[in-house]
């Protein structure tokens, strides 16, 4: 075959392979997103469980690189093997589904064997996630070594071709992250997204096999990329030693994934922290890695010395990573909340702009290190596939350990900014080791840059971790993989914050937080065992101890919340941290429910921010069913809703989902605020009715003394029966694990509300809901209140009037407020005095 024609066919094949490998990267990332999504529901959204899943993924990639790389030279037709591997990924991904169901069915039994040993439980989750992901990830890890073997016949252009394949595969992964995070899951759900990814893998495999057959028919076979016969199949000798090669391959995976992990935590200090925010950061990171692959492709083609090039890349990585917090602080104007009060599109643009400004260039540089090793490899006589397999092995092992070390050890021990500084310093240390152990004549010149960088980073002052107003001061701070938790004092009010802007509770809200426990316990005839999903300040859980409970269990996701609440909120927590009836568990709420066989008379769900990544799972049909299964006959579940964070559409989705599980749903309030209302959906069994005797019996636990001579007025906090708005909920699509519409819609709706395109459930919108409940099903006709006498039912109307009264007072409409006051005095003369 003429040389020109052979080169033309080789070029066309490389383009076709690159397209296939691009879509292979997209497919792999979509599968990874779904795996993380589903395993988060089963293992819990706690950071330890997520990290175990991520580590299992990279471990499979590492093993796949090692196994398939070692065996790639045996394959006569590597391209056909690659096609079969993609088909194998599709097939083994299907096996993951029954495996996940098996875990869910047997988790409670597993937990009973392990007990309360959290370390053993995390290790067990890691083992199980590894077993679920092992087959498809081992196949994924082998795709690059097998293709390297295919294109590596004759090594003159091997590094150039391999870096192109790596770059397009990574860019494909970025497109997969974007498509999964912003399009597929929200539009079609998790199951359909997973099916699409499996079909994509299957098609890639079939196309690769077809291409291989066409090559065979043209007698081109695997020699399409051949060069003169005299070329050795060994990687060309360079100055880099084998030990140096392993060090750089391992450390580049370790430090790159560590940087991504910590940068994500850094961005959490100024973002809405929704699924979109984290998807945007991941997309930019992967794009930058892909561009880094293209940069390495250019460096491979240019006749630069290998060790100086690597030292330059390592030194620049140290500088750019180390000073990224300062750039971040400057661009966010001292950790301001990003794009507050703007449209949803503007917010997304701001995230991408900030991500590109802060992490893109550093990631391009550090992303060029790994693929550049395809050129700067040690002089060892190995087949291309085996060499690339070893490269994938050490790099992925580093990627396995990176998030664990940075996210759980360093964050806990030294905090966010110092962890970034350590990552940067380690890049410099690697450069120093390579330079000092090299035989390169001018190595001392290249030692100077990393040494100066390391010294400079050690002397650099960290930016602030929390933004404060002039009248605020930080009392204490905890930093971990769960986020940055701070205790802030302002004018005598003690506030607990997570990630700079999210308030978990404060001392001035004591009455509201107490009512979140009192309401459900007030209406239960004999609440002995109670469960709180979420603790916050501990004030709500502590209020339950005023009732005649025998056991109180509290599940809190954020580990640092427990010592913070104990240290700073004990005066308002009613002895919560000393009472022997109380058991506080650090765990994910869904994971805890999946693993317990206990029954609870009353279960209380905290105010979960609807747009937070992961919290949408606490408003799904599956979660509500799990809660219902933990209730005995007559049990009560109260899910509190932050109305000031919900739009009418979000509220309707949650309410309709709740009502699909609980046959009797009523609405109760914790306060009479029109701007920051907390409202509970209270679910009970069919035919449940409010008992006057129960209210009189339990009211003493709320007011502190028995008042037989007057009305208990408990129905002041009753808003109405959900049946009153059942028609408006009838066409609402429910929130499920497959389609977590709350989690995906709430971020968009909240930003629309901030610019007036939507409204939150406050003010007139909240009043509209309450009036609709009252009008469509008046208290006198409400079957839930049918056992109450008229003198008690009237307080539902008194509560409505008092809500209107408070709203008018806050608006300065005193004349209209006085008219409402007169109505209240007619209905309940003693109410306003009391």
Sum this structure up briefly:
By secondary structure, this protein is an alpha/beta fold. It has helices at residues 3-43, 47-71, 78-114, 118-151, 158-217, 242-267, 275-301, 306-322, 324-331, 344-372, 384-414, 416-436, 443-459, 510-523, 539-543, 561-568, 589-595, 621-629, 648-659, 692-698, 700-703, 726-729, 741-754, 763-776, 790-810, 814-827, and strands at residues 472-480, 483-490, 493-498, 502-506, 529-533, 551-556, 582-586, 602-605, 636-642, 664-669, 678-684, 718-721.
Q: What this model shows, in words?
A:
This protein is α/β, with parallel strands linked by helices and about 850 residues long. The chain has three domains: about 1-225, Growth Hormone, Chain: A (Up-down Bundle); about 235-460, Growth Hormone, Chain: A, CATH 1.20.1250; about 500-825, Rossmann fold (3-Layer(aba) Sandwich), CATH 3.40.50. Helices cover about 60% and strands about 10% of the residues. Helix 16 links the parallel strand 6 (about 550-555) and strand 7. Helix 6 runs antiparallel to helix 12 (about 415-435) and helix 9 (about 325-330) packs antiparallel against helix 10 (about 345-370). The longest helix has about 60 residues, at about 160-215. About 55% of the residues are buried.
């Amino acid at each position: 075959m003429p040389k020109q024609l052979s080169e033309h066919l080789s070029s066309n094949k490389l383009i076709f392979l690159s397209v296939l490998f691009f879509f292979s990267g997209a497919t792999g990332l979509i599968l990874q997103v779904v795996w993380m999504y589903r395993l988060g529901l089963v293992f819990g959204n706690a950071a330890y469980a997520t990290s175990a899943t991520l580590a299992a993924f990279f471990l499979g990639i590492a093993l796949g690189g090692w196994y398939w790389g070692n065996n790639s030279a045996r394959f006569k037709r590597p391209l056909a093997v690659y096609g079969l591997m993609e088909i194998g990924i599709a097939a083994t991904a299907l096996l993951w589904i029954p495996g996940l169901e098996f875990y869910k069915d047997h988790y409670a039994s597993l937990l009973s064997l392990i007990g309360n040993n959290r370390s053993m439980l995390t290790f067990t989750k890691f083992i199980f996630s590894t077993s679920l992901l092992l087959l498809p990830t081992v196949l994924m890890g082998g795709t690059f070594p097998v293709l390297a073997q295919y294109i590596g016949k004759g090594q003159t252009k091997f590094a150039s071709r391999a870096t192109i394949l790596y770059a397009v595969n990574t860019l494909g992964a970025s497109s997969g992250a974007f498509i999964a995070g912003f399009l597929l899951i929200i539009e079609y759900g998790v199951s359909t997204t997973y099916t699409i990814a499996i079909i994509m893998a299957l098609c890639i495999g079939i196309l690769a096999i077809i291409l291989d057959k066409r090559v065979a028919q043209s007698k081109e076979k695997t020699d399409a990329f051949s060069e003169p016969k005299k070329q050795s199949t060994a990687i060309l000798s360079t100055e880099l030693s084998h030990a140096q090669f392993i060090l750089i391959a391992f450390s580049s995976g370790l430090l790159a994934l560590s940087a991504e992990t910590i940068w994500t935590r850094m961005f959490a200090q100024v973002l809405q922290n929704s699924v979109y925010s984290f998807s945007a950061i991941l997309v930019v990171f992967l794009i930058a890695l892909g561009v880094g692959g293209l940069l390495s492709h250019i460096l491979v083609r240019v006749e630069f010395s290998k060790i100086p090039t690597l030292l330059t890349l390592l030194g620049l990585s140290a500088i750019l990573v180390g000073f990224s917090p300062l750039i971040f602080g400057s661009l966010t104007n001292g950790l301001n909340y990003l794009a507050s009060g703007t449209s949803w599109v503007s917010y997304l643009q701001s995230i991408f702009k900030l991500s590109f400004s802060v992490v893109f260039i550093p990631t391009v540089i550090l992303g060029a290190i790994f693929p550049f090793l395809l050129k700067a490899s040690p002089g060892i006589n190995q087949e291309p596939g085996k060499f690339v397999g070893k490269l994938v092995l050490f790099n992925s092992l580093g990627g396995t350990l990176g998030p664990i070390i940075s996210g759980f050890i360093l964050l806990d021990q030294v905090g966010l900014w110092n962890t970034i500084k350590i990552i940067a310093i380690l890049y410099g240390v690697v450069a120093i080791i390579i330079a000092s152990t090299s035989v390169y004549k001018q190595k001392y010149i290249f030692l100077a840059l990393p040494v100066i960088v390391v010294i400079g980073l050690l002397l650099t002052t960290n930016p602030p971790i929390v933004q404060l107003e002039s009248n605020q001061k930080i009392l204490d701070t905890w930093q971990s993989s769960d986020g940055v938790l701070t205790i802030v004092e302002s004018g005598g009010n003690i506030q607990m914050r997570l990630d700079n802007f999210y308030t978990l509770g404060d001392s001035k809200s004591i009455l509201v937080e107490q009512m979140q426990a009192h309401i459900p316990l007030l209406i239960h005839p004999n609440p002995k065992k109670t469960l709180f999903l979420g603790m916050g300040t501990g004030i709500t859980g502590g209020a339950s101890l005023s009732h005649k409970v025998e056991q109180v269990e509290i599940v809190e996701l954020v580990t640092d919340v427990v010592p913070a609440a104990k240290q700073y909120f004990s005066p308002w927590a009613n002895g919560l941290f000393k009472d022997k009836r109380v058991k506080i568990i650090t765990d994910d709420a869904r994971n805890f429910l999946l693993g317990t066989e206990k029954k609870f008379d009353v279960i209380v769900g905290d105010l979960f921010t609807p747009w937070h990544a992961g919290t949408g799972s606490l408003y799904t049909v599956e979660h509500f069913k799990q809660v219902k299964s933990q209730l005995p006959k007559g049990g009560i579940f109260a899910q509190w809703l932050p109305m000031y964070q919900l739009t009418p559409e979000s509220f309707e989705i949650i309410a309709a989902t709740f009502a699909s599980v609980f046959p009797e749903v009523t609405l109760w309030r914790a306060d009479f605020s029109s701007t920051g209302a907390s409202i509970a959906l209270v679910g009970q069994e069919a035919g449940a009715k409010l008992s006057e005797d129960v209210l009189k019996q339990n009211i003493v636990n709320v007011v502190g003394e028995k008042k037989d001579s007057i009305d208990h007025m408990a129905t002041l906090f009753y808003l109405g029966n959900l049946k009153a708005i059942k028609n408006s909920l009838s066409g609402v699509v429910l929130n499920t694990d497959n389609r977590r519409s709350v989690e995906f819609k709430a971020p968009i709706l909240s930003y629309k509300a901030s610019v007036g395109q939507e409204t939150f459930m406050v003010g007139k919108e909240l009043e509209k809901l309450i009036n609709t409940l009252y009008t469509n099903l008046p208290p006198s006709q409400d079957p839930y209140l049918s056992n109450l006498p008229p003198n008690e039912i009237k307080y539902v109307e008194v509560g409505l009037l008092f809500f209107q009264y408070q709203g008018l007072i806050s608006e300065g409409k005193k004349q209209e407020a006085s008219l409402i006051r007169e109505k209240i005095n007619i209905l309940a003369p003693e109410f306003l005095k009391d």
